[in-house]
Design a protein that fits this description.
The complex is a heterodimer of chains A (about 220) and B (about 140). Chain A has about 220 residues and is of the alpha+beta class. Chain A is built from seven helices and seven strands; from the N terminus they run H-H-H-E-H-E-E-H-E-E-H-H-E-E. Helices cover about 50% and strands about 15% of the residues of chain B. Chain B has five helices and five strands. Classes of the chains: A alpha+beta (about 220), B alpha/beta (about 140).
């Protein structure tokens, strides 16, 4: 994606790079945690091996247990890398068809650790239908990420966020429900200004609920 | 006497294995998976070292560090960091942490740091005893 095209679709190169950096930083931290667990289990096997030389008897069950723990972490790492890979390939084409729920789900997974740091719990409700849209995937990912960031940075801790997706009046809606927390209008409006070009590319809107307890990302494609 | 250590990290699978490995080496190890319970534990037990992860849910590791040191300024805290958080590790040392170590952890290096923590603690206790004795002698006019 060159400069001209990214600008045409609403994101400057700098915005794209910053976003890319945040996502890869989050993923690399997750991978590091997985490696730390595998490292400890490998070290434990070495410890046991040394103890066996001094007569310690290792049960096959114990060995199996350690192997299974390593397997679980490898599986976890695979999922993390799968999500990163999907994200990395989201710039392969300018316009692609994708499922709103699927993309929102993997972006939430990538964002999860950041959300946990401020005790933000996120519940994404799977819609009963598939809602597919054809547009710039990277920009959609950007919007989801920064909608989450908007909430995290402007709300006090322990938010229970519920996200629902529907299609009403020919418009796709991604609804961020903050439950008992309130988002201030000024922060919201500043955010809308920041992402206005991307919203234009989706013919979209960001609308704050009257009580500030929810907002809707509307996509009109 | 066995070093008494508190391990604080939200990754249960990491903490449990590291706990076992340290106990295999003769240490007495307690664990905490949330930062909120750490300050309470520190009030009740006399640890030689606290191994504290910086990146945990609910509370930033640096805030936990400050809470611990506010109540227990002599506590020896070793920070666990990732590559990207080495700067935070240095910042933690400026706030009063004893040292930091990167994940994945080199267990031999960690044990050295725990032993250093224990030695630091003994020096502090010795110093306090010395000061107490000095004060007592001065109060008696010696």
């Amino acid at each position: 994606m060159n400069d001209n095209i990214s600008y045409e679709f609403g994101l400057t190169q700098q915005q794209s790079l910053i976003f890319n950096g945040k996502v890869t930083a989050s993923v690399s931290h997750d991978i590091k945690n997985v490696m730390a667990i595998i490292n400890e289990n490998a070290g434990l096997l070495q410890d046991i091996s040394a103890m066996m030389e001094e007569g310690f008897v290792l049960s096959p069950h114990r060995l199996d247990g350690i192997a299974k723990k390593i397997e679980i972490q490898i599986s976890r790492a695979n999922e993390i890398i799968y999500r990163l890979n999907r994200f990395a390939h989201s710039v392969d084409e300018d316009i692609v068809e994708f499922d709103i729920y699927e993309v929102t789900e993997y972006m939430l997974k990538i964002y999860e650790r950041i959300a946990k740091s401020k005790a933000m719990k996120i519940n994404l409700i799977k819609p009963c239908k598939n809602y597919k849209i054809k547009t710039n995937l990277f920009n959609f990912e950007y919007l989801i990420w920064y909608c989450l960031d908007l909430i995290l940075k402007n709300i006090i801790k322990e938010t229970n966020l519920e996200i629902t997706i529907n299609f009403e009046n020919q418009v796709y809606n991604v609804i961020f429900n903050l439950n008992d927390k309130v988002l201030d209008e000024q922060s919201f409006n500043l955010f809308v200004k920041k992402v206005s070009r991307i919203l234009e590319s989706f013919q979209g809107n960001l609308i704050l609920g009257l009580d500030g307890k929810n907002f809707i990302l509307q996509i009109n494609i | 006497m066995a070093q008494k250590v508190l391990l604080v990290d939200d990754e249960k699978d990491f903490v449990e294995v590291l706990q076992e490995r340290l106990e295999n080496r003769g240490m007495s190890v307690q664990t905490s998976f949330t930062p909120l319970s750490v300050v309470e534990k520190v009030k009740k037990e006399n640890y030689d070292a606290i191994i504290l992860d910086l990146q945990m849910p609910e509370m930033d590791g640096l805030t936990v560090l400050q809470d611990i040191l506010n109540d227990h300024p002599d506590m020896q805290v070793i920070i666990l960091t990732g590559h990207a958080t080495v700067d935070k590790g240095i910042k933690a040392m400026k706030l009063g942490a004893m040292d930091f170590i990167e994940k994945p952890v080199d267990i031999n290096l960690l044990i050295e740091k725990i032993k250093t923590a224990e030695a630091n603690k003994l020096v502090i206790i010795d110093q306090k005893m010395e000061n107490m004795i000095k004060d007592l002698m001065i109060s008696k006019g010696w």
